[in-house]
């Protein structure tokens, strides 16, 4: 059974930083982070290819967030800097994603709450 376990969420002031982690029980070619704010659809944040490490970012986070991975630990990270109140959401780790749409991902973590206070 595939498991994705996120950690690192919390409460931070606007302008602050957080780092999310996602440990995967299996290997996939592409991983992604999505987020979902109350009353909104789940939206793409960033993605990374395990082999080669090529990355993709939503325009709303480009330049502020960095996705990375540690092959030895089978762990993916999302470093979030210059956080804004609009970044407040539940952040989900996803695997087996073939695109930027949530429906194109095969596996999901349980989510971790990120709250940015202004």
> What does the radius of gyration come to?
13 Å
Helix and strand element order: EEEEEEEEEEE
The biggest beta sheet is recorded as: 7 strands, mixed
By DSSP, the count of extended strands is: 11
Q: What is the straight-line distance between the termini?
A: 40 Å
Question: What integer is the average pLDDT?
Answer: 95
- Identify low-pLDDT runs: none
Number of helices: 0
Q: What fraction strand?
A: over 45%
Q: Quick one: overall form? A: globular
Fraction of residues in helices? under 10%
Class computed from helices, strands and strand pairing? mainly beta
Task: Explain the overall architecture.
The chain is mainly β. It has no helices and eleven strands. It has strands at residues 4-7, 10-13, 18-24, 30-36, 43-49, 55-57, 65-70, 75-80, 89-95, 107-108, 112-117. The strands form two sheets. Strands 2, 4, 5, 6, 9, 10 and 11 form a seven-stranded mixed β-sheet that branches. Strands 1-3-8-7 form a four-stranded antiparallel β-sheet, with no helix packed on it. Strand 5 and strand 6 (55-57) form a beta hairpin. The termini are far apart. The mean pLDDT is 95.
């Amino acid at each position: 059974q595939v498991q994705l376990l996120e950690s690192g969420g919390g409460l931070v002031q606007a302008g602050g930083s957080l780092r999310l982690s996602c440990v995967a029980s299996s290997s996939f070619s592409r991983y992604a982070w999505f987020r979902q704010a109350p009353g909104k659809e789940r939206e793409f944040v960033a993605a990374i290819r395990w082999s080669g490490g090529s990355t993709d970012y939503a325009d709303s986070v480009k330049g502020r967030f960095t996705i990375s991975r540690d092959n030895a630990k089978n762990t993916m990270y999302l470093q979030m800097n210059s956080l804004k109140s609009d970044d407040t959401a539940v952040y989900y780790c996803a695997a087996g994603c073939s695109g930027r749409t949530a429906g194109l991902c095969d596996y999901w973590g349980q989510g971790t709450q990120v709250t940015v206070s202004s």
